Amino acid sequence: MARKDDYYNRAKQEGYRSRAAYKLKQLNEESHLVERGDTVVDLGAAPGGWLQVAAELAGDEGTVVGVDLQRIKDIDGVETVRGDMTDEDVRTDLVERVGEADVVLSDMAPNMTGEYNLDHARSVHLARQAFETSMAVLAPGGDFVAKVFDGPDLADLKAAVEREFRYVREVRPEASRKESSELYLVAKRRLTAPVREGDELDVEIQDVGSEGDGIAKVEGFTLFVPDTEAGETVTVEVTDIKARFGFAERVE
Ligand SMILES: C[S@@+](CC[C@H](N)C(=O)[O-])C[C@H]1O[C@@H](n2cnc3c(N)ncnc32)[C@H](O)[C@@H]1O
């Protein structure tokens, strides 16, 4: 296995524009993010190591779009946009250009000041912009990855992301420098349900399923509610959300 300091040399030898390319490879190996034919949006993409890896993974049938403050030299099969992701107009243009993405990646990082709290806060701000972009462009079931420097504001950001995805993990790829506080929030499978765990709402039980649980519909989404009968209207708390249905408990 390569030592961390070797990634720079490896990138040179293997034709990647940055050692960061290996972070995306490792994230992808662990979390299966980009598949052939996918539409991938990469934020903070310069000089383009992640774009090269994403283009390899998505293949000719895929679409890869990279955005950065810096100009990105052309890469075969990759579209690039020069822009600031904190600018709402840039985000709107991007969403119009892409339509719907399967994966949104962000390796955006602020210019480092060396002041830990400031660098942390700025990186969380960039990750939030990436998260908002993902909410505007990501298909149901799509995946989102964002770099963030560890620190006190991470928990709030992670909680916001957790509400919108099946699950979220903090991943520190081996290719990250060992002295770095960077980590990646890897959010898998954007939820499509109109309700979230912990929501409390009134529902009408329309039917009883074969397992004996009441069945309620919220905007067409099925919630199973034990200990209820058809025709009842009950107040429930949502306890678990799956891709196509959820579970809720009666609130007395
Ligand atoms: C660590 S580098 C990305 C490396 C890239 N993933 C690669 O593999 O080559 C972080 C990038 O984030 C970009 N960036 C920082 N703030 C940004 C913003 N507000 N909008 C767009 N890009 C931004 C920087 O210009 C920088 O190129």
UniProtKB/TrEMBL annotation:
Sequence positions that bind S-adenosyl-L-methionine: G48, W50, D68, D84, D107
Keyword Nucleus: no
Annotated ranges, domain TRAM: 194-252
EC top class, as a word: transferase
InterPro entries in the record: NA-bd_OB-fold, RNA_methyltr_RlmE, RNA_MeTrfase_FtsJ_dom, rRNA-MeTfrase_E, SAM-dependent_MTases_sf, TRAM_dom
Presence of keyword Glycosyltransferase: no
E.C. no: 2.1.1.166
Domain of life: Archaea
Annotated function: Specifically methylates the uridine in position 2552 of 23S rRNA at the 2'-O position of the ribose in the fully assembled 50S ribosomal subunit.
Family: Belongs to the class I-like SAM-binding methyltransferase superfamily. RNA methyltransferase RlmE family.
Protein name: Ribosomal RNA large subunit methyltransferase E
Source organism of this protein record: Halomarina rubra
Gene: rlmE
